[in-house]
Amino acid sequence: MVTLLDLAGLAFCGLTWLSPLCWNAWRGRLLLLHPIGFFPLMMVYMVIPPLVSKFQGESLLLTAQRFDPEWFLVGPLFILGLTGLFYHLGVKLAGVPLSLGPEERVDSYREFKTRDGVSPLAFLLVSLVVFAGLLGGRLAEPYTGMHVSLGFWWLHILFKSSQLLPLLVFQQDRRKGLWMLLVVMPALLLLRSKAAFLYIPLAFFLFYQEKLFKISKFLTLTMVGMISLTPLAVYLYTVDFAREMRPDVLANPEVPTWSESLERITHREYAFESFAIVYHTEDRLYLGEKTYYNLLLCLPSAIFRDKPVTFYDFPSQYLALDYHAYEMHYAQHLLTPFYQDFGVLGDCLGLMAMGLLYGLSYRGALRATFRRRETWPLLVYLCLALNSKYLTESKLFNSLVDSLGLACGVLLVVGLSSLFRRQIKETVVTGARAAAPLGSKPGWAMGNGGKSRG
């Protein structure tokens, strides 16, 4: 059962992580894209499933049953609450105010185009070409065994940027964006992409928030439909995964069952419990070794063939009763590598660094958006905000690499459309100059009333 100390720890986490968000929401200035928005929500959300499981008299991990249930989550909860103070300190150090003023209600950014000066049809065609390339790379990707270690994993990371293509096109033109959505959505379902089916609606919601229904009722209903189809994508993904990792499934197609597949929706919700296990079993500091370990995971083995990392280090050491030798990443809470390296101080400094990262990224993206009067800089920042939950439940650098893959896809579409826009401008200017009467001033062709910019 949940104890009073557990509830006190949860209240402390909510107070330190969600106070700025709740204060601004009370004043009618809710902005989930802000560094005080979605990421703090996910940090607090990750402690809810273990507490619910404890309330039911169970635990999400079998290994957690070895420890005293009364004190198992208390220490980690108060550490998480303490890091919330340092996270918001990092946001403040980045120059981002925690209290939103009237001038910081950035609803006006929704009025900008993704890329100014590009026709919606041209932008749609560029996005379709990019999506076709990403899809071709994903279908041809040898995503098993040796090929993953040789670097083809990056094709999978880059393909994830297709989750943002409907939003990119929709911000350029609403009708064309719906067309793009109807192209991308079936492809992601056929590829059994469970994450994409949640990330596409989440991207639209984070960007438009409560105004999504006012902007497009059809789009809102489509988002609800995608969320409803997510269990089907999870089921397809799980059956495929089990057939690759468990040969016995070939003899018994009924394994895994439908209920087992649906349970995989919450397959990373045990991350905070895994941190609690580390908290109760760790008896020495690695002094940077685990952070270095996470960094090496980003390097393909083709570059660094002798990197001393495997899939099995963390689960075999800490999750003994839950460990199965499948080639998969076991969830680690964001606090885990910092705690393993430098203890509670490492968690505080690590989360302050995350506050700096979110704050500087948001501040730069917002300034660039209003300076250029285009939304693509804010959409690049959205790649980081969109991965907030994955950041809390995965290896730190894996999540950052995923965000980089999303951003690369956005920048690829923006870059190609920019080249197309410059070509159009040159064609228009050349044609106007050719049609200009002899002896006219150069400014005539530019349409500025005959005044040369000279």
From TrEMBL:
Residue ranges that the Swiss-Prot or TrEMBL entry lists as coiled coil: none
Membrane-spanning intervals of the chain: 7-26, 32-51, 71-90, 121-140, 152-171, 177-206, 218-237, 342-362, 403-420
UniProt keyword annotation of Transmembrane helix present: yes
Keywords recorded for this protein, A-Z: Membrane, Transmembrane, Transmembrane helix
Name used for this protein in its record: Oligosaccharide repeat unit polymerase
